[in-house]
Amino acid sequence: MAKFQFTAIDDDGKERRGMIEAPSRDLAATQVKGYGLTPSRLVKIDAGAAAKRSRQAAPSGISGGMKKPSYFGAAVDRKGITGFTRQLATLLQAGLPLLRSLEVLMDQEKNLPFKWLLNELADTIRSGNTFSEGLEKFDKEFDRLYVNMVRAGEASGMLDVSLKRLAMYMEKIQKMKSRLMAALAYPVIVSCMAVLIVGVLLVFVVPQFEKIFLEQLRGEPLPLLTQYVFAASKVLTDFWYMIPVVIFGGYLLLKGFISTKFGMLVVDHIKLYFPKLGDLFRKLYISRFARTLGALLESGVPVIEALNITRDTCGNSIIMELVERVRNRVKDGEAMSVTLKSSPIFPSMVTSMIEVGEETGEVPEMLTQVSEIFDDEVDNAVMGLTSIIEPLLIVGLAGIVVFILIALFQPLVSILQGFAG
């Protein structure tokens, strides 16, 4: 199919530009009208001629003159992608063409791998291809959700709006992750301190008491509790080098188990139904489902494709299976809310809001409201969980220390009684 670059007017009288694929000019104009736009200019793009013009017109160092730097993994992290998306949306809303916006961002970029990536995206557009086609080449940096929202924005001539929605979506995801990490920081620190304190006691303090007891008791049997503590100290002292081996081996075994279909199902089931923790994960998954699907539908992505992408970004095999079932039912003409009602994972409040959205034609808005509600629910669940975990960790640490002290003082009582006799 041929590619056409169009200029159109929306209902507010604002000029919109975009690129679409269609077999002919008439069908391209019909497709633009289908997005609620009035086409004012429609130009067929000759990819070969565009590429030739770009090579002749582009100064050296901008098109094709940048050597690919060596880097491992993604050229930039998710925070960098979020910032890039926000800046690009701002430039486009200010009236700059897409190519010029990319060149502006490339000139100010200090990260060489990402600077090279932006240069490749600019070259793709100079060659007559769409922005989304350029993004598809870099799947480590831009996932399916990102590419499809950009493609929907290009098709509707509202790329700036789609990028703004995408930036808001990514910022909220980043904010949610930051809040979770901040909430879990204290329990993790307390756990590490507990392990460190117990390790110091077993490695440095307990062996000294063992020497004293062997000298003073002269072969008398030690209390059973003391024998357990001395045995643990001896194992830790003599085989300390096995600790990283055991930890690493356990990690590999767990990772191998999770990589199997059965193991993934077991772990995902524990996440959803474990007391207290399951409630947090369910709310987190519902928030992610609603926010992702709402953002895609609001950007104009077809509902079947939006459900496909949402399924792949759920992060839980049980939720993925449910979304797949919803997709199949929607494909057969059934409403989403009908299938979601049959699942115990989604509360009735969520399915009722989606059902209202389906009846009023405002599903994206309802999904956005659901995600906002459950973001707050996740915050409350995290605070409630940490308020339970923190005292439990402190009590657990105190219990271990008291256990060791009792084990050490029992023989001391026998020694003192011997001196008194």
Folded structure, characterized:
By secondary structure, the protein is mostly helical. 74% of the residues lie in helices and 6% in strands. It has 17 helices and 3 strands. It has helices spanning 25-34, 47-57, 78-93, 98-108, 112-126, 131-136, 144-156, 159-217, 224-238, 242-259, 261-273, 277-298, 303-312, 317-331, 336-341, 348-360, 363-420; strands spanning 2-9, 15-22, 38-45. A 3-stranded antiparallel beta sheet has the order 2-1-3. Helix 8 (159-217) runs parallel beside helix 17 (363-420). The radius of gyration is 31 Å and the shape is elongated. 30% of the residues are buried. Mean pLDDT is 84; it is low at 50-64.
Shape: elongated
Rg:
31 Å
Which percent range fits the helix content? over 70%
Low-confidence stretches: 50-64
Strands of the widest sheet, in order across it, are 2-1-3
The profile of the biggest β sheet is:
3 strands, antiparallel
Count of runs of 4 or more consecutive helical residues? 17
User: What portion of the residues fall into strands of 2 or more residues?
Assistant: 5-15%
Distance between the termini: 103 Å
What is the element string, with H for helices and E for strands? EEHEHHHHHHHHHHHHHHHH
Tally the beta strands.
3
Return the structural class. Answer: mainly alpha
Question: Would you spell out the secondary-structure blueprint of this structure?
Answer:
Elements: E1 2-9, E2 15-22, H1 25-34, E3 38-45, H2 47-57, H3 78-93, H4 98-108, H5 112-126, H6 131-136, H7 144-156, H8 159-217, H9 224-238, H10 242-259, H11 261-273, H12 277-298, H13 303-312, H14 317-331, H15 336-341, H16 348-360, H17 363-420
Helix pairs in contact: 3-4, 3-8, 4-5, 7-8, 8-9, 8-12, 8-17, 9-17, 10-11, 11-12, 12-13, 12-17, 13-14, 16-17
